[in-house]
Specification:
Length: 424
């Protein structure tokens, strides 16, 4: 039996391996064709649209022979699959098995490097970057979002917590250009609450640098941390999504209603809040469901209560694509056109423009005047003008435009915030 030369091949079910080996023996696929066929077989199984045998039509009459026949056969299969990718993903018949939480072990680690930068391309105009700095207090997440890149980077069985974080943040000296720090790049910022003293340590940093915004980002509905005495430059943000995507792709996370309820409680306690509608997914019913998300936000909050609202969509590196495929978990998240985007893969620009423009148009007009700061996260600069009606010529101008309303809104909330009761 001929061997299929691709690391992903051994992750396929035996029945699929046997079929592809027999096909390879018959048509002698080139290495490139092997790669295309194996990756497609993996995708179809994850979408619950396999096996790949259903997508090949060997009975179709053809005068081609040899390599031409092989190319014709594979290309015909790929075109059928690409037609599926070009359509909005249909979740109506997709019911993934519940993703059970892994048995994570919490490990206290002592590390030298905890600060980093946002994953936008360095010194380029491929995306519009706000100069976000990152702080990795915890590495790994216990949620099961099918598109997540975090699980590609870290040990799946360990939650690594910086054990000397309080000491580190008492002594760390931030760079002069650090005005905005995100803590949700290597884990969910609030899933663990203050269980490991992480939030206590972040409060220390926020008090040392009152002009620096420290952003907590979450998909949880944990609220026991809200009664902590936190300075107003700590901003809590929730990632939101359409109910269908939360149910079928964001396993173990809080529902949309739970996330908004938690954010409402935070706002009621004077904590600055914001939202990320991210990642938006191109699926059947997306227009109605994303309109619903925006309406729920605008019905639950006043525009002056929100610091920001960002829009973004799915973006994958080659490494993340390999990981998602090798895991073999049921998901239709890769049922999409994988188009090159700043060295990664995402939707075509036309699809993105349609989704972002629709979401922004769902906001009442009064929200667009002195409301939250709207922006696109890690997206092509050409998408700004058709989405918002304005754009920024370079990263520095975007950063300046973002920094001013962030700091103004936090300062305003600081004045309005009721004082915390004195500790006895």
């Amino acid at each position: 039996m001929l061997h299929m030369e691709h690391p992903l091949f051994t992750t396929l079910p035996k029945s699929e391996q046997t079929y592809l080996q027999s096909l390879h023996a018959k048509y002698s696929f080139s290495f490139q064709k092997q790669q295309q066929v194996i990756e497609t077989a993996s995708d179809l199984l994850q979408w619950k649209m396999g096996p790949i045998e259903r997508w090949f039509d060997e009975k179709k009459e053809s005068k081609a022979q040899g390599k031409k026949r092989t190319k014709e056969l594979v290309n015909a299969m790929l075109e059928l699959v690409n037609e599926e990718r070009r359509r909005p993903t249909d979740y109506s018949d997709f019911f993934p098995s519940e993703r059970l939480p892994d048995k994570y072990q919490s490990v206290i680690v002592h590390t030298e490097k905890i600060m980093g930068r946002c994953p936008c391309p360095v010194e380029g105009e491929k995306t519009r970057c706000c100069n976000l700095k990152t702080l990795d207090a915890v590495e790994q997440c216990a949620f099961g979002c099918s598109y997540c890149s975090i699980q590609s980077f870290y040990n799946k069985g360990e939650i690594q917590v910086v054990g000397n974080l309080q000491e580190r943040l008492q002594n760390i000296e931030l760079d002069e250009d650090t005005w905005h720090i995100g803590t949700g790049q290597s884990s969910d910022s609030l899933l663990w609450g203050n269980d490991f003293g992480t939030l206590d340590a972040l409060v220390t940093l926020a008090q040392r640098y009152p002009q620096t915004i420290i952003e907590l980002k979450t998909k949880s509905h944990r609220t026991d941390w809200i009664d902590m005495e936190t300075p107003s430059n700590i901003v809590a943000t929730w990632s939101l999504n359409a109910p269908t995507i939360i149910e079928k792709e964001e396993h173990l996370t809080a529902t949309l209603e739970q996330r908004l309820s938690s954010a409402r409680k935070a706002a009621d306690n004077g904590i600055p809040v914001g939202f990320h509608l991210h990642p938006m997914v191109w699926f059947k019913g997306w227009e109605q469901e994303y309109r619903q998300v925006v309406e729920m936000v605008t019905n639950t909050f006043r525009k002056e209560e929100l610091v920001m609202f960002s829009l973004g969509t799915l973006t994958f590196t080659k490494a993340v694509l390999r990981t998602l495929r090798s895991q073999g978990l049921e998901s239709r998240i890769l049922d999409m056109e994988l188009t090159g985007a700043a060295g990664k893969y995402s939707y075509p620009l036309a699809t993105k423009q349609r989704m972002f423009s629709h979401a922004y148009s769902c906001f009442p007009e009064q929200w667009k005047d002195k409301g939250p700061f709207f922006y696109l996260c890690m997206e092509d600069p050409t998408l700004w003008e058709p989405t918002f009606g304005y754009s920024y010529p370079d990263d520095k101008s975007f950063e300046a435009a973002m920094k001013e309303p962030y700091q103004q809104r936090v300062a305003l909330l600081t004045k309005k915030r009721r004082p915390f009761p004195k500790k006895l």
